[in-house]
Amino acid sequence: MYKSLIRKVLFKFDPEKVHYFTFSFLQKAIKTPGVLKVLKKKYQVENKKLEREVFGLKFKNPVGLAAGFDKDAKLYKELSALGFGFIEIGTLTPKAQSGNPKKRLFRLKEDEAIINRMGFNNGGVEAAVERLKKNNGEVLIGGNIGKNKVTPNEKAVEDYKICFEALFPYVDYFVVNVSSPNTPNLRALQDKKPLTELLQTLQDLNAKKKKVKPILLKIAPDLTDEQLLDIIEIVNQTKIAGVIATNTTISREGLQSENKNEIGGLSGKPLTKRSTEVIRFLAEKSNHAFPIIGVGGIHSAKDALEKLEAGASLVQLYTGFIYEGPKLIKEINQAILEK
């Protein structure tokens, strides 16, 4: 029903407006008596065999929602009802910011992809914290953190520290985002020296807590093999918990859609192969030394299984969720059980 009817209607309208409409609709629908129960019955797959223990956390299933969908932690409980094993919020910055000028979100229907240049639009970390206080451990939450656009790279560490400290009591793991192409000069923080300093600073803060929390690094799919080897070395040196592979790409190779030349990060099917290649490279070259969350171009259960077989411990959806609907979560979990 989603692809044959709902998606056809939604795809007739501006994608960013549809996003906010969907949020509002879900929030209201869940409050209707019986709806939550119906959604859970339709989409959730409850089975002990799906449970995973990764970087010290217990996931009820290995299929999560990637950052960028619920930036401000407004819908994590409702989205969890659709069958996700965990929800990653953000990217959050210390101060609220409106992001880049609109129009900044584009569907590439022929390619089953999306280009976005949102620019870390969010209401600021403190506003998200107030919403996360209502979680009470019901949903396993990842906190994806970044820097404000106006913060120069030489002071970026301070922004990450602010977000880390504010979110620490309310998230289960952290993701350091230095790989978005939509904040000027952000990707320069992926260079070995600044990245090592940033991650080590956060690890030092982490070590002072009564109980440390996993810190992961989200990387771009556009890194060279040499840069990926640097990532492995940095992970080993700083002893962070793992890597999320991958963020959106700046490549436009092989695209057919009218909007293919829009500036921004590309996600969806064109990223399927490359993100899996990055996962396999990291897993093999590191001798499976750290967990990897696989994300990028998962539009079917087969895509998810390929990432798990390549070395991912968990997977995340974003664009595939938009194109395929919530049934994709159930299909992936069922396919894992059938393996």
Automatic annotation (TrEMBL):
CDD domains tied to this protein: DHOD_2_like
Primary localisation category: membrane
Catalysis: reaction(s): (S)-dihydroorotate + a quinone = orotate + a quinol
Single GO MF annotation: dihydroorotate dehydrogenase (quinone) activity
Recorded topology in the membrane: Peripheral membrane protein
Principal EC category: oxidoreductase
Cofactor binding notes: Binds 1 FMN per subunit.
Pfam families given in the database record: DHO_dh
Keyword ATP-binding applies: no
Enzyme Commission code: 1.3.5.2
Residue intervals of the Dihydroorotate dehydrogenase catalytic domain: 50-337
Cofactors: FMN
Superkingdom in the source lineage: Bacteria
Keyword list, A-Z: Cell membrane, Flavoprotein, FMN, Membrane, Oxidoreductase, Pyrimidine biosynthesis
The protein's annotated pathway: Pyrimidine metabolism; UMP biosynthesis via de novo pathway; orotate from (S)-dihydroorotate (quinone route): step 1/1
Residues annotated as binding FMN: 67-71, 91, 144, 177, 218, 246, 268, 297, 318-319
Subunit architecture: Monomer.
Family: Belongs to the dihydroorotate dehydrogenase family. Type 2 subfamily.
Function of the protein: Catalyzes the conversion of dihydroorotate to orotate with quinone as electron acceptor.
Protein name, entry field: Dihydroorotate dehydrogenase (quinone)
Gene transcribed to yield this protein: pyrD
